[in-house]
Amino acid sequence: MILNRQRFLIKYGLDDVQNMGVDPAQRPLQAQAIGLLQAVQYLKVPVIIANILTIVFELILGGT
């Protein structure tokens, strides 16, 4: 990732669920946004693999 996640998101309060300052149940949308951002960092490798496979299949099958 090009940007430092904690430094970039701390000004919006999206750096960590435990550091929200309130109970996550009181701000469910913010807690879900934080969860999504944390989940995306684990999906980088599968997405890269899927992209490589797609490119290989397109090259083999002669996609347009």
Characteristic key phrases:
64 residues; 3 helices
Give a concise summary.
The chain has 64 residues and is an all-alpha fold. The chain has helices at 5-9, 28-42, 44-61.
Counted by DSSP, the helix tally is 3
Considering DSSP H and I runs of 4 or more, what fraction of the residues is helical? 55-70%
Main sheet properties = none
Shape: elongated
Q: What is the strand content? A: under 5%
Instruction: Estimate the mean pLDDT confidence.
Output: 76
Structural class: mainly alpha
N-end to C-end Cα span: 31 Å
Number of strands: 0
Kindly describe this structure.
The chain is an all-alpha fold and 64 residues long. The protein is built from three helices and no strands. The protein is elongated. The two termini are 31 Å apart.
SSE blueprint:
Elements: H1 5-9, H2 28-42, H3 44-61
